[in-house]
Design brief:
Elements (H helix, E strand, L loop, with lengths): L8 E5 L3 H12 L3 E5 L3 H10 L4 E3 L10 E4 L3 H11 L8 E4 L5 H7 L6 E6 L20 E5 L6 H13 L3 E4 L2 H26 L5 H10 L2 H7 L6 H10 L1 H23 L3 H14 L6
Parallel strand pairs: 1-2, 1-4, 2-3, 4-5, 5-6, 7-8
Antiparallel strand pairs: 6-7
Helix pairs in contact: 6-10
Bound molecules: NADP nicotinamide-adenine-dinucleotide phosphate (NAP).
NADP nicotinamide-adenine-dinucleotide phosphate binds next to helix 1, helix 3 and strand 6.
Length: 286
Amino acid sequence: MECQNQSMNIGILGLGLIGGCLGFDLRSQGHHILGVSRREATCEKAVALGSVDQASVDLSLLAAAEVVFICTPLALIVPQFEQLIAHLSVATVVTDVGSAKAHIVKASSPLWDNFIGGHPMAGKTDNGIEAAQRHLFVDKPYVLTPITTTPNSAITVVEEIVRSLGANIYYCQPEQHDRAVSWISHLPVIVSSSLIAACLNETDSDVLELAQKLASSGFRDTSRVGGGNPELGVMMARYNRQALLRSLQQYRHNLDELTNLIEQENWTVLESKLKSTQQARPGFVE
Ligand code: NAP
């Protein structure tokens, strides 16, 4: 299957933030977008907004799709895939956008030869089709996690579509993906949430109110992911539990170390620790 510069029937299952964004960009390239979602109202909205050409609550709409992106909440990706299979022709390439990969790839690969796991590293605080926008994936990492049995043809099809979104593609093993995102995506959600919760423990209500009024860009940056979609946070923890617990243990160790230095008034070592994190940050974000 060749997809470069060629219009394809592309199916999107789950018309929320990520599914809706994919629809906008792929439709604008001339692909015919078939959308399936749980609620009729969402289907109607997706068509009205122009994210998809056709939409239905019935999975059979995806029978005509050459490629399907499964974009439902994490817990529903495998169950929905199981139901979708009856409607697909053998050549259909299926991929998903779930934020944790090992569980999904392990469960999905035996179901379908032409399956390749994926994860766009792009998002927003809001969810649902109303939050979908154009160009969300431009210049953002997009991870693909083929395994040894994934056909090259399936990899090529998904790779070309993802590249057409303007995303930067990375390949890795599903388990490597889960460990990497536990550091830079899942751990920050828990840390940021506990930051907000810790502030709320201020017992003087006047001080708490003042802190809320004084909070500015620093707090906005550090609290952003802790103030995001709770359902997504729970799913990350549930489906990447082992790697997240490992990261949290290390984080607790580092926090204890910094706490001890402050208790001991060891400003020299504290400064050298902060210097090393200052130097390390550009390795993660420019
Ligand atoms: P979302 O905005 O809540 O979208 C999910 C959509 O799936 C909902 O709008 C819902 O639409 C639909 N849905 C629910 N149950 C369904 C079912 N049984 N069958 C078909 N559709 C169903 O969530 P999202 O943020 O786009 O996340 C979707 C996936 O993307 C998740 O697996 C997540 O891990 C992954 N992801 C998210 C982000 C992010 O930052 N948000 C980033 C990368 C990857 P209805 O209105 O029809 O119920």
